[in-house]
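input
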Amino acid sequence: MTPYNHPVPPPDRQVKLPDGSYQMTLLPGDGKRLEWCWGNDKDRPVIGEPFAFELEAGIVESTTPSGHEWCLWQLHATDADPTMYGANPFLLLLVKDGIGEIRLLHEFSTPYNKSQAKVVVLASNIRFEPGKMYRWTLEGIVGKTGSVRIRRDGLLLADYAGPFGYEMNGNPYWNAGIYKWAPFEWIGRIVVKINFH
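output
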């Protein structure tokens, strides 16, 4: 894996810790995201073929207002297909009021229609211990006859078979970090830890 920052953070927003992990902080006025992105071709799941992805990530602090969501990791639509402009991620871990929920989306009409995307909740009520790192492992196949299994620290959270992803010309990519989901504008502080080893 060769991730890169998206966007490049101010120096005080990302710190490499002695254990090799990164602590990332998003403050009011910083914009809607501070993420690592796996955008290189060799890191992307290939549609119709098995993929596997692993990441360590945890939440140090979150002081977002009640009811506001943000994303810790996601599998995003391709950036190579102009008809996909504005498409949502189609596998994501959202956090609201300190509790996580994993959602899957799919929409296979041609052309892609964002408003018709169907949402499947794969896992909910995922609790986080502040400062604790969790190992997330994901494996599956993106496509009309797709599948995905998701584990946290070895515990199976989701085992899904069915449509997974969008009708698109190009392969998706992974993001992890902090992404304001809904609404984009709010006051609050989020601190996460990410480890790529």
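quick obs: The two ends are 9 Å apart (CA to CA).
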